[in-house]
Write a structure and sequence with these properties.
The complex is a heterodimer. By secondary structure, chain A is an alpha/beta fold. In chain A, 51% of the residues lie in helices and 12% in strands. Chain A is built from seven helices and five strands. Chain A is globular. Chain B has five helices and ten strands. In chain B, helix 1 packs parallel to helix 5 and helix 2 runs parallel beside helix 5. Chain B is globular and about 65 Å long. Classes of the chains: A alpha/beta, B alpha/beta.
């Protein structure tokens, strides 16, 4: 399965020293790939999104972040970063009891939308993170957020997936890659830069 | 605004590129030892506090539920939600397991204690820290930046790369056998890093192996010895 990543390993040289040397070289290449994706971030769009988020926060809104798997840890990370800067923020993956109750009783596609129904307020900001851009529960959550007049922001990979088809989405960032580890590393940069624009609460 | 953001992107390029360039060899060796531990049934325990708690959860989901279809799931647990903090490791960890501590700044007492506990219990230990971090771990990588966001993003690349490379080694299972680094066609010069009764642990090029030392006189840590087929043949210094 890694042939496309490590074509050199298909050679017959399977001794440890050779593979270690090849792995070292590929590690440097991975860094270059991550750097190239970061160079592709639309910084003017980051600045615009950051200003829009700050405007919501200043009128009493909160940042509500959500995603699955590794992106759930990003959601928790960005929520923690906003909290540390003095802003109200939460991640919808913080409460395992709520997540498992909704997933078990209604279905996993509702785990974020269901939480937004009681929690969300019109001044809030929804920040959805999905590497594919098509996770059903993330798309459903963003729909619910839009219905409730939240500012809708999303960070995705690949070609933007289903989130790119949403014509009402306010701010969309696509790390255009089909390789999850690298595009996810660029996602962390996007939300860290958003916080740089938002700045700390006065 | 965009100019200052561009400077922040450049800072990430400089720190990540520089670190991978200088540490590529150590990363490869660390990933090999990690794969070796997993191949012998080891479980990974990951801990960070604050923002680094999310990284501990992230690295665990990479191993438990590989994003690339077809990769095998490897056992990993994040201690993020261990309400007792330290007892998960004490009760669950066995010698041969793996501990990974993550710190975005230069020191976190919880992670220092976790790594010390893990080492005492015979685990293979990894540490990812910010600049100036010098935790006691078998494989430690310090990211030279004072910006915790930059450190965190470089850590993410590091643990992604470790995960990716572990699976490279899993596709070459012969490389996970207890590799004999002194079994090539020619004898190998290696430095003694530990002496245990009638054997010595020698290291060459970042790789370690236990060799018999009956053939040479008193051997001490730091000696350079010529080895072949698991036996030290001659003391060079």
């Amino acid at each position: 399965m890694t042939e496309f990543l490590y074509p050199f390993l298909e050679r017959e040289e399977h001794d440890l020293a050779t593979v270690l040397a090849d792995v070292s070289a590929s590690t440097v290449q991975k860094g270059s790939d991550a750097i190239a994706l970061r160079r592709g971030i639309d910084l003017a769009a980051v600045a615009a999104c950051g200003r829009a988020i700050r405007e919501r926060l200043e009128r009493g809104g909160r940042l509500i972040a959500f995603g699955n798997g590794g992106s759930s840890t990003d959601a928790q990370d960005v929520a923690g970063d906003f909290l540390a800067s003095g802003w109200p923020a939460l991640a919808l993956t913080n409460d395992v009891a709520t997540i498992t109750a909704v997933a078990n009783d209604i279905g996993e596609e509702n785990v974020f939308a269901r939480q937004l129904i009681p929690l969300a307020r019109a001044d809030d900001v929804a920040l959805a993170i999905s590497t594919s851009g098509s996770s059903r529960n993330v798309v459903a959550g963003l729909h619910e957020a839009h219905r409730r007049l939240l500012l809708t922001c999303a960070i995705t990979g690949y070609d933007g997936g289903k989130l790119r088809e949403l014509d009402w989405i306010d701010h969309l960032f696509v790390a255009e890659s089909d390789y999850v580890p690298r595009l996810q590393e660029a996602h962390a940069t996007v939300y860290h830069l958003l916080l740089e624009v938002v700045g700390a609460r006065a | 605004m965009t100019a200052s953001l561009a400077a922040l992107v450049e800072e990430r390029e400089r720190v990540l590129g520089g670190l991978l360039d200088s540490e590529q060899k150590r990363i490869a060796v660390a990933a090999h030892e990690l794969a070796h531990a997993f191949s012998r049934g080891g479980t990974l325990f990951a801990l960070g506090t604050g923002a680094a708690a999310t990284d501990a959860a992230h690295v665990v989901v990479e191993f438990m539920h590989p994003v690339i279809v077809g990769k095998r799931a490897l056992p990993a647990l994040a201690l993020t939600n261990d309400v007792t903090r330290s007892s998960t490791l004490a009760r669950l960890a066995r010698p041969g397991d793996i501990a990974l501590g993550i710190v975005h700044g230069d020191e976190d007492p919880a992670v220092v204690a976790f790594l010390a506990q893990a080492r005492a219990a015979g685990l293979l230990t990894f540490a990812l820290t910010g600049e100036g971090g010098q935790p006691a771990a078998d494989h430690a990588f310090a990211v030279p930046s004072a910006d915790p966001f930059v450190v965190q993003e470089v850590h993410e690349t590091l643990y992604h790369v470790l995960w990716e490379v572990v699976h490279v080694f899993f596709e070459h299972p012969g490389l996970l056998d207890d590799a004999c680094i002194t079994c090539g066609d020619v004898a190998v010069e290696a430095r003694v890093v530990a002496v245990e009764n009638r054997a010595a642990v020698v290291e060459t090029d970042g790789l370690r192996q236990t060799v018999a030392v009956e053939l040479i006189d008193a051997v001490a840590v730091g000696d350079l010895v010529l080895c072949h087929a698991g036996v030290a043949l001659e003391k060079l210094t």
